[in-house]
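SAMPLE LOG
Freezer: B-3
Tube label: C17
Construct: single chain, 206 aa
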Amino acid sequence: MKKEDVPEIVVSRLPLYVQTLNHLLKEGKSVVSSAELGERLKTTSSQIRRDLSYFGGFGKQGTGYDIITLMESLRKILNLNQTWQVALVGVGHVGQALINYDGFNRKGFEIIMAFDESPKVIGKKFGNLVVKSINELEEELKIKPVDIGAISVPAENAQEVCDRLINNGVRAILNYAPVSLKVPEGIQLATVDPVLKLQKMTYYLK
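STRUCTURE (predicted):
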């Protein structure tokens, strides 16, 4: 089956399956049923089976799924069987937190370069990275191309930064700026805005 034939909502659930399988493995389990997976993920066993059916058969009727086999298969489907290198633009509070977050490395993502326009951070070292000037972006990406860019700049600068990353070969954008970005077809875009999530939750806190 072609990648474009798989609904985006199904793909978005696959990382949750991998995460849950990893937790089950740490608990000492080796096999899991679709019913238990569904219970863990607050969904139905039929939903689990439908999602996995897009990628072939993984379990046997009555015996469930071998956790290691399923987890490795899903990681391969998600292209997580390699380390993805990331270019970060914007090294303020959010950018510094991203550099120092060891969860990226543990899950197969490595920030290998960081850029900013502020003289206050250019040339400074955060983690293992020395911040470079945003003016060096194109040159650095030519020397060491990456597929993923992370943006944590002010909203008014985010689209320009996004365009520059894409024009230099970046194919996926993780956006922490509080603004909606426009990207060409075929470019993956994910926006992380915790304030929007909080505003959604406060609706229910009457």
